[in-house]
Structures are given as structure tokens and as C-alpha cells.
């Protein structure tokens, strides 16, 4: 067995393998998937000298613990969290040398939700439809990490970033999502559209990689009945029967029958990945994406 591998000592609440996803397969019913906080994943890859598409680990709230079988360079970013190597503090947001057999511990997020762990060479699980990403909706890609799993690693790159700490945006204290109204905003009453773009919501604990759910005022429909299923895109804001908007994230379904009141700008979605339950949310109407 190759020594270019990573043993999972503690998998955490939900840790998955993610890269830039598998776009272009919606006609097959396959979501894009990929890292929810794409800029954070790209940055940690750059810090360890990986290609931008290299697969990383995405943790959820409580981190993970890993033991490499050979010496590796690791960078942890995204949600701020404590990092240790064999119990000794190591920097977050910077390249860290981890000797063979040492225990890398990524602790619980101090703020934010998802931390990203890049390892030199990238996680080299078998790709499916051109991506190594775990897709929780379709089940494609590797399963979420379990204790005792062993992940193969690729060959490390030659160059690494020479930095002490790389600046990263703080998780949002308030989530502001710019949204272009339509295509089905006319399925909601004018008062409901005004409510959607003027009232405050909060991130719901029911949020996941499929969608950001919010608690707050319900939106009233102007029409009864249901739509025929239509194509769904990343950032679509669907209004289900309970009237509370759902923002579709990376593992979203490719079709849906509930009206889409608007679409959130893609640039605003990484912050949504780091918004904890209870975070205030505002939807701001804009004319163009």
C-alpha cells in the first residue's frame, strides 16, 4: 500500500471530499456539487502548492483529525478554528509541515461553519464524471468521511506560497444576499415580494449543502396550484408551501416545481456557506447578476 495516504482518526460531524465540482451535467440530473466556500478551498490549495482543482476536505462545525502516512504540507482555512500537530498549536491559514505519523487535529470552528483542509498532492480518490466531490443529494463521489477511512493522496507540487498567514474574509455577522427577481416572482403577491426584499430573516438550523433555509416572515402566493418541474440553478431562491425561502447551494436538485422568486448572485454564496444558524439574512434586489 502506498505511503501517500491520509488516515482518518476522527471524521467529525460531516467531513466530505470536495473540489470545484462537476458542472455541465444538469441534463443528467447531476448537481454541480463542489466546495461551498470555493474561494477558501482555492486559497488553501494555493498555500500547499496544489492545482486549483485539487480535492480538499470540507469539515462542518467540529473539524476532524487526520494522520498522514508520509510527511505532507497542510493548510487549513475557511472557518477560523484551532489547529494542532501532535498536540502542539499550529497556524491556521498558513502552510504547516506535518511529519509522517503525526496527528493533525482541526478543531471546532470558532466562527463560521466550514473549514477547508488542503494536503500537498490533493486527495486522490477516484473521480466520478470528472470530479472527486461528494454529492449528498445524488450520492455521487466518495461517501462522507468515517473514522478509520484511508484517503489516497496525489503527488505534491514543487512550489508553495511563502507566507506567514493568508488574509481571509471573516464569517458574516449579517448575511446580505443580492438577488435578481424572477423568473417566478409573479407567483407571489406584490406584498410578499416587498417583504422578501425588505424584511430580516435568520439562517435556519435546517440548512445544509443542498440549501440555505431561513426563518422569518412567510411569503404569500398570488397563484394557487403547482408549476411543472423546471430547471434549477445555483443560487435559485425557491418558495416552498410554507412560504419561507430556500437558497439553493452546491448540492441542489437540478429541477423543481416550487416557484423561484429570484436568484442570488454567485459571488455572495461563499458567505452563505459560513453563516451559522441564527445569523441575520437580508435579500437585496438588484437589476442584474
Describe this structure in words.
- This protein is mostly beta strands.
- It has 3 helices and 20 strands.
- The strands form 4 sheets. It has a 7-stranded mixed beta barrel. A 6-stranded antiparallel β-sheet has the order 7-6-9-4-1-11, with no helix packed on it.
- The chain is elongated, with a radius of gyration of 20 Å.
- The model has no long low-confidence stretch (mean pLDDT 95).
Task: Outline the fold blueprint.
Blueprint: E1 5-10, E2 16-18, H1 38-48, E3 56-58, E4 64-68, E5 72-78, E6 83-85, E7 88-90, E8 96-98, E9 104-106, E10 115-119, E11 150-152, E12 175-181, H2 190-196, E13 201-203, E14 211-215, E15 230-231, E16 236-238, E17 246-248, E18 255-256, E19 260-264, H3 269-273, E20 280-286
Parallel strand pairs: 12-20
Antiparallel strand pairs: 1-4, 1-11, 2-3, 3-10, 4-9, 5-8, 5-10, 6-7, 6-9, 12-19, 13-14, 13-20, 14-17, 15-18, 16-17, 16-19
What is the string of helix and strand elements?
Answer: EEHEEEEEEEEEEHEEEEEEEHE
Percent helix: under 10%
Kindly name the structural category. mainly beta
Order of strands across the widest beta sheet? 12-19-16-17-14-13-20
Brief account:
This protein is mainly beta and 289 residues long. It has 3 helices and 20 strands.
Q: Which tags fit this structure?
A:
elongated, 7-stranded mixed beta barrel, 6-stranded antiparallel beta sheet, 3 helices, 28% strand, 289 residues, mainly beta, 20 strands
Amino acid at each position: 500500500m502506498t505511503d501517500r495516504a491520509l488516515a482518518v482518526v476522527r471524521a467529525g460531524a460531516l467531513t466530505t471530499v470536495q473540489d470545484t465540482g462537476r458542472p455541465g451535467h444538469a441534463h443528467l440530473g447531476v448537481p454541480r456539487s463542489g466546495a461551498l466556500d470555493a474561494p477558501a478551498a482555492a486559497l488553501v490549495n494555493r498555500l500547499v502548492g496544489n492545482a486549483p482543482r485539487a480535492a480538499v476536505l470540507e469539515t462542518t462545525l467540529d473539524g476532524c483529525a487526520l494522520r498522514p502516512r508520509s510527511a505532507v504540507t497542510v493548510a487549513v482555512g475557511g472557518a477560523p478554528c484551532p489547529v494542532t500537530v501532535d498536540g502542539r498549536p499550529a497556524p491556521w491559514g498558513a502552510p504547516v509541515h506535518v511529519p509522517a505519523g503525526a496527528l493533525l487535529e482541526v478543531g471546532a470552528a470558532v466562527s463560521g461553519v466550514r473549514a477547508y483542509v488542503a494536503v500537498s498532492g490533493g486527495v486522490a480518490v477516484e473521480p466520478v464524471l470528472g470530479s472527486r466531490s461528494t454529492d449528498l443529494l445524488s450520492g455521487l463521489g466518495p461517501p462522507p468521511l468515517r473514522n478509520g477511512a484511508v484517503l489516497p493522496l496525489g503527488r505534491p507540487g514543487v512550489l508553495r506560497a511563502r507566507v506567514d498567514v493568508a488574509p481571509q474574509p471573516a464569517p458574516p455577522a449579517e448575511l446580505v444576499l443580492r438577488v435578481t427577481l424572477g423568473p417566478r416572482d409573479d407567483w407571489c403577491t406584490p406584498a410578499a415580494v416587498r417583504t422578501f426584499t425588505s424584511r430580516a430573516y435568520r439562517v435556519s438550523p435546517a440548512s445544509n449543502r443542498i440549501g440555505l433555509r431561513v426563518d422569518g416572515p412567510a411569503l404569500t402566493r398570488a397563484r394557487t396550484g403547482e408549476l411543472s418541474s423546471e430547471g434549477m440553478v445555483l443560487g435559485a431562491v425557491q418558495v416552498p408551501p410554507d412560504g419561507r425561502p430556500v437558497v439553493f447551494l452546491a448540492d441542489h436538485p437540478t429541477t423543481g416545481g416550487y416557484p423561484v422568486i429570484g436568484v442570488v448572485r454567485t459571488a455572495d454564496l461563499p458567505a452563505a456557506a459560513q453563516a451559522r444558524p441564527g445569523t441575520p439574512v437580508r435579500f437585496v434586489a438588484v437589476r442584474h447578476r
